[in-house]
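seq as requested:
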Amino acid sequence: MTPHAHAFCSIVPPHLLEHLAHSSNPAVAAAARRTLIADASARTFRVLPLPGTAPTLAPTEAGRPHRTVYDCRQGTDLPGERVRAEGEEATADATVNRAYAGLGATFDLFMNVFGHDSIDGAGLPLHASVHYDENYGNAFWNGEQMVFGDGDDEIFLDFTLPVDVIGHELAHGFTQYSANLEYFSQSGALNESVSDVFGSLVKQYAHGQSAEQADWLIGEGLFHPNVQGTALRSMKAPGTAYDDDVLGKDPQPAHMDDYVRTGRDNGGVHINSGIPNHAFYLAATELGGNAWDRAGQIWYDVMTGGTLTPEARFSEFAAATVAAARARYGDGEEIQAVLKAWAAVGVPTD
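struct tokens:
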């Protein structure tokens, strides 16, 4: 897949929204249907920049974030009205300020930990639009910017509340500019998993959490208190993030024995991502300390190493993590943790 053909990437999977669209609660069903329609429209009008075409920054600006937040005021025209730019004071709108801070937290992880200047490695300015559409229950990366809905206040709250949601969506940009994993089947599930991995690392880095202290949840705090669920996904225990009468049950598998074969959701990209997600969790917790130090470094090396094909399958990605672990750390505990993690989820590494 060429870079300009990359897919629309949202935090809430379509299967969950489709389930909500059939809810007996008219407000929930209407909001879900509206979100599905808005997502379909956003996919249609998506135009992506090619890698390497980011604006060239002056040398004095390198290594610093360049953030701009826009307000759609419940409309769908992007980017909306500019309401806060880099270095400007906080506004009276908490959503704007959270988006600004989340862009910064993501920039900080990539720059401070990996020496990667913004999500493209070349100082790409980070743009985000908030208050997108009415009761919009999603957040997405459209190849150029982040977009956040306010939620319906029935199932979803404001999508800027969990910082890992912001990190997740921006990490789709990181993938776009690095390995450019095709958004279908196993490569698509890897695309989603990489976003969960780096979204979780953004949260852990921002909160100063070790691998042991982290909750390994994606989107914790996004659900309305009445929902029987803790988050959209769990890397620690895929399939346990929610079990709710309205939402249904979290369908993610944690092992290849339970791999879901489906034509929906681009071949189950949001579902089967639970398998590589769990492998990262196992490797990170086996190594201990800060997950970004060794496990995160290995995953980063794979994404930026130039060895992955856009159509990479789980086994190819797993083998690449083993090679990356050996290249950086030799035949020590790092490579053993990686081998053990992939074996535990049933993915071969050779």
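The CA atoms of residues 4 and 50 lie 6 Å apart.
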